[in-house]
User: Fold these one by one.
Assistant:
Number 1:
Amino acid sequence: MKIVKFFAIALFSFCLSLGINILSPVFAESSAANLVQQGVQLLQQGKAEAALDVWEQAEIIYRQNNNKLGIIGTQINRASALTSLGFYRRSCNIALKAFGNELECDRLTASDLENVLPKFKTSNNNLNFQGLQTLGNGLWAIGKLKLSQQVLEAGFPLANSQNAKGQLLLNLGNNILSQAKNFANFNLRKQREIQALQALVEQGLSYYQQAHNVSDEKLVQVQATVNHLDLLLNFRQWYKDPRDNFLQPYVEFQIDTLPQSMEILRQINPNINSIQLTIKLAEILMDFEQIDPRSTLVQIQTTLTELTTANELLNQAIQQAKTLDNSRLEAYGIGIQGKLSQKNGELEKALNLTNQALAIAQKVSASDVAYQLQEQLGDIYNQQSNSPEALIAYKSAFNTLQVLRRNLVALNRDVKFNFRASVEPLYRKLATLLLQPESGSNQPSLSNIKAAREVIESLQLAELDNFFQDACITAEDINIDEIDENAAIIYPILLENKLSVILKLPGTDNFRYTARSDEDFEEQFQQSLLRLLVNITSIQRPIAQLQSSSNQLYQWLIEPFEADLQADLKHDDSQIQTLVFVLDGFLRNIPMSVLYDSVRERYLVERYAIAVVPGLQLVDSSPLLKEGIRVLTAGTAQEAPSYRVEGYNSLPNIQEELETINKTIPQSEQLTDAEFTKVNIQNEINSAPFTIVHIATHGQFSSNPDDTYILDWNERINVRDLDQLLQTENLKRSDRAIELFILSACQTAVGDTRAALGLAGVSIRAGVRSVLGSLWRVNDASTAELMKQFYQQLLQSDSSQLRKAEALRQVQMKFIKGEIEPDKDYNKPYHWSSFIIVGNWL
């Protein structure tokens, strides 16, 4: 009988593959419906790949019967399976295309929604609703949170049941929770930002409370309660003022609903969601130890403690995971038990539990769980002062993360929205151990210095991946000597109360290392950087005051290597000509050109050409050639409609800037005023191979890609759209790459300590070899003069290869010496140091 059944299934599959319908339409529809239900059961059991296969078979049947609603339904189901597997982009795109949209989620903009949303109007209202929820959740998962919120909210008129409305409100609450995490990461804690964050948090809490009160589904009620508690606890960690009585109504909601939620989790038929919620509740309970005893949230802590313990919840979740044969959740639950033992000081027990969990995770290839457990092992070994074992564990975690990135396996969505707390520390812990001095020396080993450099390069890539919410960046190992034998690379690495600096000189394995540390060095360093930034960007500050604060940074980064930089070990008669910085954290917001050598009384740029790279692996080594240089300029001196919307003033000197460039470069095209639109820019780029694209307009770089943009005449051009804008049709970018992308009037977001990450993101997303941009918006008259001089320096080069960083250096030196508009204060660093080269410096 089994053999007959096997051949029947094989024949059925073979006929489907040939497009032969051997079933009657009625029987085929019944068969497809059964397959759909079978897929639902498989997904509930955690067997997403099997569910995906079954739903693909169902879709084939629906296509043969031309059942459009059946096709859409199976595609929405497939999107759910892909989400479970971590393929968020594919899931989102399927949901979008299921309703006849030939777009991709990555490219979706707010204006696109005017055409997209009306297509979610089939004859099946429930299907329309599920389609919007799936698309909204897909956009949420890839980091397009505002768009996700708009799509989810479009489902309100379609939510024709209490359960549907509850699910919608829960999804919106999850979206707001992620927005709040992003906001907390990207902004300083000024009063107006606290108020904005508080408003966002209260909106999310309200959605969760409504979801709980509206829905009849027990699991939705529990999800709403647990996520509500998670948001409350997160906000309490962001907002460290004990005067938090405004939280009292939300605390009372928790006290009222927590007992019921606990009971539901104990009695419910266990499934993946209920087990995940049980583990999450245990983690929340563990985090309550950090609550200020004066906080209103202590009332919840008391209630929780009376109801259960973290260990009881974890035991329950682990047993349920075993019942479902879900090894991934079992490993995760045991791992959290290990973390609980670690917090309680039971380090041997913590080691045993963590190793047990790791073995299970590795057996089922749950790499996204394994890397966290490997890091946890490192932390435990560190607590035991066992540095060798800690180093091995951190290296294993690092290697696992590298594989995760290469295989495009998405991390847990909560991890993506909390990168700085959940991923970045691993890189810094590993770098810290690698850079420990060898026994009997004050220096790390050469092999460890090289490994630390690799870790920091990888951190740069990981930050950019997280910036775009996508592992979209291709990196290649590069030998710097093959690019420029007269360049040195400097890696400042910010660790806990320590600044480590690695210098890579020309030659094989030619490294130098120095470090500064102190008990309060981290705070001292950050204060020094803030003071320097204020002095540079405030034109009223005396130059002597600026030079004093920039000399401090010079002493930390450059002075220890002065002897090495002054002599080229390969050619005694030559010296290092270019310094290339791979900057870390807030250092990215500081122009290295302004570092001041008080002994020789000169800025760093007076001695070296300077460039910044987001990582040496991302540098394209092709030089800019003088022959055939062609420029596309775009901008407006008028008050563009987009300027009015965004609150920017006009830039009256832009017209002169663009006209001067067009006179200097014979082969150039110009788009001004109403012609300055992204469609026209793309059309121009598609019509001719431009070497340089120069856009003079307002814009902003931020550590949040949603707030990294430039303005055309009508609207924002977001950083995520730049690669599409600057990509030529029918040719790969590498065949006809734009060598230099100049943004002459943009600035980093005020108060964003990692805003310059957005400038690096522009260079990567635009697919160009280098970007010339400004860290703050300078007086547009001096900017126009600097740009004019820059092009003249490029064309005056005696070589056929134009060195962009050197051209910028020559211009900045003219400003320093007062050769440009001597009756003005253009010699102040405010005017010239803002501009930096990111990427290829040749």
Note: The chain has a mean pLDDT of 87.
Number 2:
Amino acid sequence: MTPQAEVDLTNCDREPIHLLGGIQPFGALVAVNGDWIVSHHSANFDEMLGAGSAISTGVQLAQILSSEALGRLRTALARLRGTDPVERIFGMPMTGGGPLFDVALHVSGSNTVIEFEPHDAVGFTSHVGTLRAIMTDLEDRSEVQGLVDEAARHMQRLLGFDRVMVYKFHEDLSGEVIAEARESHLEAFHGLRYPKTDIPAQARALYIRNPFRIISDVNCEPVPLIPQLSIEGRPLDLSLSTLRAVSPIHLEYLRNMGVEASLSISIIVRGKLWGLFACHHYSPRTLPYSLRTVAELFSQLFSLLLDRVLTDIGSQLSAKGRELHDRLMARLAGGVSLVESLPTLDGVIGEVIPHDGSSAYIDGIYRTRGAAPSEEQFKALIPALNSGSTSRTFASNELASRIPAAQNFSHKVVGAMVIPVSRRPRDYFVLWRKELQKSVIWAGNPEKPVEYGPNGARLTPRKSFEAWQQSVTGQSAEWTTEECQIAESLRVTLLEVILRLTDEAVQARARAQEQQELLIAELNHRVRNILNLIRSLISQSRHEATDIASFSELIGGRISALATAHDHITRDHWTPSSLAELIESEAHAYLAGKEDRVTIEGDDVLVAPEAYTVLALVLHEMMTNSVKYGALCDSSGSVTLTLSQDDHKDLCIEWRERGGPPVRAPERRGFGSTIIERSIPYELKGDAQIRYKLSGVEAEFMIPGRYVQPGKPRTGKTAEESRVPHTMERSAGSIPGHVLVVEDNMIIAMDTEDSLRSLGVGTVTTAGSVASALESISKDPPEFAVLDYNLGNESSDAVAAKLKTIGVPFVLATGYGELADKLEEHGAMGLLKKPYGKAELSELLEKIARG
């Protein structure tokens, strides 16, 4: 039983505590309707007031009380406002020249109940001053424990009781003595726990309506009401009475404990019963009404101070929650999902909410950290978890008592703080706690069977206060109210993170879609330009060619020059590319092994993509003419290209040929001359000058500075060292008689076949897929192979592996840029870059033949 238990639970339904039919003997009571006394009054009423005659129903108050007393009573009655109000009058004479009384008025149904107690004239004036000093001392307390300890001490000093306790209700409605002030010879009750059944629900409700309970002498007989029932057959409701008697069972408890007087005052915070001041005295003690009023006022002021402290603690928790929010938002700003961010979450949250492990279940993905159930064990909880609220956290220090499936991992963890972070499908972030074996000291066995005594079924009073220790297993440390509040703010934070990630994902998809559309449009634009350029090259080149072979050579060379330029500018994602590399690549196409006849002087520069292809065609035409008619057509001539930038950062390219045969100006100006002389001025708004001197061709080209930026310092590499390697690491000794061509584009395959046949290869087999290539190899293994690496939705990896296994040399062909890493991986002898033609295949076969 609690220090101020109301009544045994077994009697509650039969004897509601707010309808008891008597009052304590130190006061008197009368119920009136208007000016008339109705059927309820205490048997000692006339004795207390000295009326001199027995009171009966229907007597007017004016026959008993003075006109002054009636006036003050009516004034007090007019002040009754709100819910369950009680008005007090101190030191009022009820009859002419009679003693002074303290009076309390309240309304009970259709009646007004007036209670009379003798006035304490001596102590009345000192109580208020005492209260002021007490409250000044308590003002400085900022923690709950310090506040309740001081309150218990001051309350004992104020009221003079042997023991004053502060009793707090827990979430499970059990109670605990959290503070105590007592005489030194008394045993301590501090820390004792009491089951929730000790104070029934109706008693808790009454403690909110009427916060004061006084028993001056447990051995006094209560004064009965006359009559017990009204003319309508109803008892008088004494719920708000200050004099009402208590249950005889409760009096029996107090007597068996040795307590002869008791007092309890409710501690109400924001309309809820937070706890009680429970006072015991071991001899009769009657407190004057004025002192009890001061004690009640103290309790109300204390409740306000407690509310302030709890609010401050809540504000601190809110600040911690905001700090946790800010830290998590900062650390999860990288767009990483919650499941992948579990280590970060676990570390940050662990500084605020202690736990032994954590789990995240997001979008069907489960991750854990520390002590936690397995994925299968957690998924067994999901049906039960999904039945709970989506907008609140759920905490239990004994999860298996709520969800039986949790028993399967009780050897790991037993307590859980479940934080839902979505609606549908349900996603969860969970904090776990391991089992914490502990002992709880109860004021008597909370599971003790009921015994029978003279007042019916109830616990044996004296033994119910003997300390009883219970060993608790299968439970973790409790999740405090503060931790649950932080977890609730954490739920909002995690929701915000998920929403932000969702928004970022949507935005990323939108950006990707826009980028894809832009890339498709750009690709379409470039492909159309290239196709249009090639068509124009074909159309213009036909005027220069004298036969099909020369026409094919002209077109092939120019397309190859464009391809080389595109290789350079796409290798670095369509950014400015090296001019020196372009010159070296073009020289290598004609002077394999003799690139030293082309010299580059000056610092390299990077040329923008839109100018790079123009320069590629110009340099290709210059190199082609030099190989055919100029300094590079014999074995003695050379070409020098000088690169420089003027004051305006314009690029100047000087072309000088020396040591070749005498030069004559062309008699007929073909398309190649047009490209050299007009493309740079026309497309780039630059300048082009060419002179056909007898000693060699000289030319100057000016590229506006907006297309040029400084390049990397030249390392002195030759053109052979700078180009993509074509060196064969294996030799066949002669031109192979059987070559396999794996190419998924039929036209390219046919062109490659024709070129190889014209170069002397006897048998050429073509295959358009991996399957057909492997079948061809198994039937008739080739002596050499050209493999297009990318075959639509598959690659030539399997074919390369097969050829490597049987020792057949091969090269890789690609239009997707560098494949240098694949050469070594697959054992390829070299790389052919698309578009390739007869010239590139001829060079390849010559190297094979040279061994």
Note: DSSP finds 22 helices and 37 strands in the chain.
Number 3:
Amino acid sequence: MRLHRLDITAFGPFGGTQQVDFDELSAAGLFLLHGPTGAGKTSVLDAVCYALYGAVPGARQSSQGLNLRSDHAAAQTRTEVRLELTVAGRRLEITRQPPWERPKKRGTGTTTDKAQTWLREYDSAAGAWKSLSRSHQEIGEEITQLLGMSREQFCQVVLLPQGDFARFLRADAEARAKLLGRLFDTHRFAEVEKRLAERRRAAEAEVRDGDTALLADAHRMQQAAGDALPLPDLAPGDPGLADALLSWAAVARSTARERLTVAHCARTAAESARATAERLLDDVRERARLQRRFAEARERAALLEERAEAHRAAQTRMERSRKAEAVAPALDLCERAESEHRGAAAAEARLRAQLPATFAESGVAGLAAAARRAAEELGGLESARRAEERVAGLAAERTELDREEHADEAVLQEAEDWLGGWEEIRTDLQSRIDAAQQDATRAEQLAVQREPAQRRLNAARMRDELARDTEAAQARALSSRERALKAHEHWLDLKERRLKGIAAELAAGLVDGEPCAVCGAVEHPAPARKVAGHVGREAEERALAAHRQADEERAEDERRLGVVREALAAATAEAGDAPTARLAEEADDLERLLRTARAGAAQLHAAQEELRRAEQERERRIADRQQAALRGAARLSRRDALDRERAALEEELTRARGDAGSVVARSAQLERTAALLTEAADAARAAEDSAHRLKDAEGRLADAAFRAGFETPQAAADALLDDAAHRELQRRLDVWQQEEAAVRAVLAELETVAAAQQPPADLHGAERAAEAAARRLQDAASAQDAAARRCAELDRLSVRATASVRRLAPLRRQYDRVARLASLAAGTSADNERKMRLESYVLAARLEQVAAAATVRLRRMSSGRYTLVHSDDRSGRGRSGLGLHVVDAWTGRERDTATLSGGETFFASLALALGLADVVTDEAGGIRLDTLFIDEGFGSLDDQTLDEVLDVLDSLRERDRSVGIVSHVADLRRRIHARLEVVKGRTGSVLRQRGAG
């Protein structure tokens, strides 16, 4: 990983935009980042870490990006960090903007913008940058994957914090384990320990659960076998648990089978005794049934004899009913005629009661004549009905005229009120039109002024940018001139050296017997030989080509410098010496005034349109007032005509209404009277007709009763039976006959008569004997079933217990293996002699690698005196394998790192940090770390040790690395020429880059 450029805006102590060109700083291999305390040296490193990982190192990180913002930044300047670097052969640009609390564009107060992140990659084929992502998560994953390091690892191996490694030297095993575990990500080995412990607990729980289930089955077998066979005293985890339970189960099954055989014999004897008792009970029950049947038949015969007289009376009643059935049609006809006559007479009386008293004694003809007279009078009211409807129409028309009059009065009043305020409305609208016209004129003037101001502002911005480009172009031109001069001198030197050794080149082409190209001789006794450092044609030509290439680059850089200077002169002529900020403020003021004027001018059309609508409204109000006056004159004449017509119609209606309230009421009265008279006449005719039909029906009934043998029609009616009575009487006759036949049949049965002659049956005694036999059989069956269930349950539980024993066998073996592995990984096993946990073992191996890598540089820094070694010894009750000692070559003894002096601690921790960086880099997949930073600690070194440390750091250039030293030690400025200085001031810190290139 190599850093190229860093741009910082409104970050930490930097209020403005600062740039760091790492390519120029890295050219020297070793550069110094210095400045006074609190200036912001560490903030430069924070910016690098924030650009890569979106967070600053260690304790300085914050969950809120707002804390990264500089207090010196302008309110409109957003915090931004942009880093350009090369990693894994790809040139990338990362831009990060933390959350920003900015002023609102409209109104007062502030609002917070979300964090933004961009990732771009330079496409060398296309010669341009292409965007890759704007997702925080995607960019974070991409950078972490390319670097192969987490943020903690990066801060430890790239931003080398010396204080941390000084503490690491003196720390105990636990503290070292935390740091190494975080850097080398050995937590997975701790997870292996944890997983093994969990698997051991899980396997132990499975075995314990299996033993518990096995004991539970044993207790169930004991319950099934009864209390005669006690269970051995066993507990989960006993070695002989399985064998003891299986032996005890075999004895329990044998005892249960013997009990089952005894119960089966007892049940067989009980079944035979019960069958004999059941047969005797059936015989007794049959004899008792026949004896009861004979006694019941004798009782039924006596009852039939007692009811014989009632049976004969029912037969006589049935014969009279059959004769009366011939008179039934005449009876029905007479009843219908009587019912019809009663209904007609009641209807006639009801209708006559509704008529006036003058019609109470009128006959059918009188009622019909009165109905015709009422109908004729009703027809004469049609003309009066039309007159009454016209009167109602006249009233409605008069009401409508009144409503129109009220509406016109409201229109007149509204028109007068509106026209009274017309002058004020017109004056206000005209004022608005004049103001809008003035704004339009002012907008045209401002628009003319805006374009020159904008051109001047753009020229000023171009002037500032070109001024910066001119400085860069001057530096490049100077550098290219120096390179061209050096290439020219190098070429001349090679050319001169080649001319001096040209004889050797000519001698190389001489052949014996052939003439020399210079002198023509064919003999060559002493040809010239090439000496050390000889320059050939190819070397000269390469130097000449390099000279020409450098000269072309110089000419191109000078041409570019001239172009930039010309552009700067043109921009300066256009913008003058005015500051860009003041020109920008003037342009913004013009733009604001122009927007205000245009907004006012935009109201011109609306005001003119509103004035036009107001004038139209005035004309409409005047027209409405005139129309209302004309309608009022017309209503006066119409109201007089309506009053005359209504008086004439009222006289006609008075005559037609009579004593009724209206013509309609009179018409309804006549309609009701005519309808009642008509209905009363019809009812009187119906009553007369029904009386004649009733008299004929009574004569026919008397004749039919005489022919059927009855003295009077009432006697025939009394003899009739309805359907229900007839069916009931017939049923009683049939029942008596059936009962008589059934009694005779029973008394004629030989078997029943024979049973009645025997002694009475003892049914209760036979039932008690049968119940006792059944109870004995039930007890025997229950005993056999219980014995069978006991045997089946013991067999089932024995099979399950055997299966459980077989299933637990591999679980016990697996538990033994897992327990041994877990104890070994946790350091509690007797086989683990040093009692080292698995993670500690891996960390010890990593620490051994780090100590070996650190020793290479520590020997050079200490002139071969000190060597770092790691120790597996156990310190107190802590971990073993994470000890770190230093071997002093002057004494030949190994001692603790805490005995080192301040300066010795510094270069020992520096060597440890560099060694750790190498090991972590190899662990991360061999990612090259071409840029490193070392933070503080050099002030504790003497001059000789400082030179040796700087030589070690300078040797890192052998691996094409550049090292940045962060320090405020003044002596380092003399020793290191490439410097990045942080200068602090009241308005924030700035960066100055010197001695690079």
Note: The first strand starts at residue 2 and ends at 11.
